[in-house]
Amino acid sequence: GLKMASFSQCRKLTVVSCKKNGVISGAIWDLDVISETNDWTLKILSSEDISNILIEKSVSEFDSGTVVIWEEFDKISDKRQFDELLSKTDLHISLVFHRYLEKDRTVKFNGRQLLPVDPYFTKNKATQPLEEESIRF
After folding, report:
1. CA distance 64 to 82
2. Which residue of 21, 34, 54, 104 is surrounded by the most CB atoms within 10 Å?
3. pLDDT (tens digit, 9 = 90+) per residue, 29-55?
4. Is the dihedral of CA 43, 49, 55, 61 positive or negative?
5. How many angstroms separate the CA atoms of 111 and 69, rounded?
6. 131 pLDDT exceeds 70?
7. How far apart are CA 31 and CA 34, in angstroms?
């Protein structure tokens, strides 16, 4: 899902992950290379490659995690449109994953840590929580 969703926006996708044991691995999918080779080819990144693209530090700050980099956008026409999409994406991720973020988990988007956006305003004093026993499924 990540690859196809990414390729709906860009032509080059880099993914670098740090596992709990500290091993960092990564790969690059490039639609131009795939088109040229007529094969679902990907480049496995070496430790040197990972260091060269300056991801190792941002991933290794955590016990585990993943960095996704989109390059060569082909659906965005100008910087204003790009900035608008970044803002909408930031809000969407903060809203959809608010419960995950509320549990002291970290999600960084474009280098900035996201904060949860609670759609139910549960921390507002005017919000009246339902009693658990009144909720029936």
Report:
1. 29
2. 34
3. 999 999 999 999 899 999 888 877 766
4. positive
5. 11
6. no
7. 5
Question: Are 65 and 105 contacting, i.e. CB atoms less than 8 angstroms apart?
Answer: no
Question: What pLDDT score does 47 carry?
Answer: 87
Q: Which has the closest alpha carbon to 119: 83, 101, 95?
A: 95
Q: Which residues pair with 10 in a beta bridge?
A: 73
- Candidates 67, 86, 68; CA nearest to 76 is 86
Give residue 115's Cα distance to chain centre.
14
Q: Six-digit token pair at 121?
A: 């305003």
Helix H or strand E segment including 113 = strand 112-113
Residue 136 φ then ψ, to 5°: -120, 135
| CA 129/CA 137 separation, integer angstroms | 17
Token pair for residue 15?
A: 């993914």
Of 104, 92, 27, nearest to 62 by C-alpha is: 104
- The CA distance from 112 to 65, in Å, is 15
Q: Rg of the chain over CA atoms, in angstroms? A: 19
pTM over 0.85: no
